[in-house]
Amino acid sequence: MSILPQLLLNALITGGIYALVTSGLSLTFALTRVLNLAHGHLMMAGAYSFYYAYVQRGWGLFPATLFCMGSSVVLGLVTLKTFVAPFARYSVVLALVSTLAFATIIESTVSLIFDVNVKSLMVGAYPESFEWCGVFITSLQLLIIGLAIVILGILAFIVHGTGFGRFIRAFSESSVTTESLGISKSKVMGIVFIVSAMLSSLAGVLVGFETSLQPTMGNAYTLKCCAIIILGGLGNLWGTLVGAFLLGLMENLLVGLEFGSFSIPTGYKDAVAFVLILFVLLVRPEGLFRKRGRAAC
Amino acid sequence: MLAFFTSDYVIHLLILIGIYFIVAQSFNLSFGFARIFNLSHIASYAVGAYTTSLLATELNFGILPALGIGVLLSALFSLIVGGIAVRLEAEYFAMGTIAFSAMVTALLINWKSITRGVLGVPGIPRPVIFETALESNTQFLIFVGVVAALVQLIFGVLYYGSFGRSLRAQGEYENGAKSLGHDTGAARMVSFILASMVGGLGGGLYATYVSYIDPSVSSFAEMVFVLTIVIVGRPGSYWGILVGSAAMILLPEIFRFVTMPSEYLGPLRQLLYGIVLFLLVYVRRANLFPVERKL
């Protein structure tokens, strides 16, 4: 039996998680032009807040979710008000430095509170697994794929089909013009940063259930988000979706399959994203699916 | 009092200050002067460290030739990075250089047949100069001090010469520098390669000092540490970097006088670096990276 169908399914699961994390970064990046280098750390911190409520405190699934959402709101607002907004008006590089400092602060704080060891959110019985034509899938993995599709569908509809989404797109095209039309930038930014933090926390929680959590996981996810954004084009949610599933596919196929007698060791799974970033920057610095150049600020 | 200043502990700290000063001053050349935010600087440092130690332990090179080859390989590495990244805009440049840095870490961990993976490289010898091995830390301190002084001298010539002015000009207003006939691309690339070479030298010195390295030399935390030194010393400053490295090496030593479980030490240092970095950029945000002068 070929392992290809199973690999394709795994690609769908990882792709779903990547799509959830990246859509948040893609939105904030497009809106503020500031690449939040702490985005993967926000995901990690959100997931740890869920871990605190669900595993350490033993609260049920619903209160833990509420707690996690609450802390995501706080994290999103802190990111915006303290680490992005004061710097964005001076220089992009300054905001990169400040978000880098934020990433360090989050990572060390989480390692101090919960230790540096690997944690799993899965307590008690493992979810039942179904077999269909030699492909195994658990109910949790079905949930991940379903959640990713539904939530990103809603998000894409909001961004590309509603009035509020038009504000977001307008700000990402020309923030001065949009503000002159009387639309509050701080309000739109606040909402987008909260949504972004919530989406990444959700992805973090799903990762925690599916595999495990570690304080050092943030950086790899930030880089994967960057790879996906570069692939899909900035601020383009459909491109982000395609890029996320493409990265999931590449990671699983390149590392899982054997090419003749040669196969890539599993340790290089994360490196797929890094090579991808460099490759795209080398051949097509404007992104694979971008139609026109960057709008003037 | 004199006993304190010649104690092993103080000499150890002074050596670390010297090494990190070399690394930070080279990062200052690209970050402070050329205004390129090169997050793969620590990867150059790791390339230098690993080349030096592998040549010295596996192939029985002397430390000084090994250091030289390490510097050359760092230059080669920066040629590859620069070739891809130097034309990109700030955010994409940061992305690309982080990707490079992460790739170097991935290679150091996974290319076990050469780098020994997470086990690291042990038993790196000290340099031999005039047929005396620098076994004692006092001798090594003098060696590091001489190298650091040379680096400072060379960088002084660069900073205050026409190359430094050209670099500063393109960092402040690229089109203006271009219109005055400065080859901004070339200036940036040269500063990038020089920074990487001296960073590699710092890595090699570190490896021969502590005699053991593992893939954590190219970690993100190290990059943040070097960045913090430069921000403390003020980017683009000549002597400030020395103050910055002294401050940032000495500051975490306060934790040594507090009793606590040892597993808290690493994260606490990280937290300290993160907070210092954030507070300094926050306080100085209006004049650290001045907006382009509007004409």
Task: Describe the 3D structure.
The complex is a heterodimer of chains A (297) and B (295). In chain A, helix 1 crosses helix 6 and helix 1 packs antiparallel against helix 8. Chain A is mainly alpha-helical. Chain A has one domain (15-116, 153-283). In chain A, strand 1 (129-132) and strand 2 (135-138) form a beta hairpin. Chain A contains eleven helices and two strands. Chain A starts with a helix and ends in a 14-residue tail after the last helix. Chain B has one domain. Chain B is 72% helix and 1% strand. Chain B has a two-stranded antiparallel sheet. In chain B, helix 7 crosses helix 8. In chain B, 49% of the residues are buried.
Low-confidence stretches of chain A: 293-297
Task: Characterize the biggest β-sheet of chain A.
Answer: 2 strands, antiparallel
Q: Please state the overall shape of chain B, judged from the principal axes of the Cα atoms.
A: globular
Question: Which structural class should the secondary elements of chain A be placed in?
Answer: mainly alpha
Number of helices of chain B: 14
Structurally, the number of domains of chain A stands at 1
Distance from first to last alpha carbon of chain A:
54 Å
Integer tally of domains of chain B: 1
The residue ranges of chain B in which pLDDT falls below 50 over 5 or more consecutive positions are 291-295
Count of DSSP-assigned helices of chain A = 11
Strand numbers in spatial order across the main sheet of chain A: 1-2
Return the structural class of chain B.
mainly alpha
Helix coverage percent of chain B = over 70%
Alpha-carbon Rg of chain B, integer: 19 Å
Tally of extended strands of chain B? 2
Overall average residue pLDDT of chain A? 83
Give the largest interface pair and sizes: A-B, 50 and 47 residues
Distance between the termini of chain B: 57 Å
Proportion in helices of chain A: over 70%
Order of helices and strands of chain B: HHHHHHEEHHHHHHHH
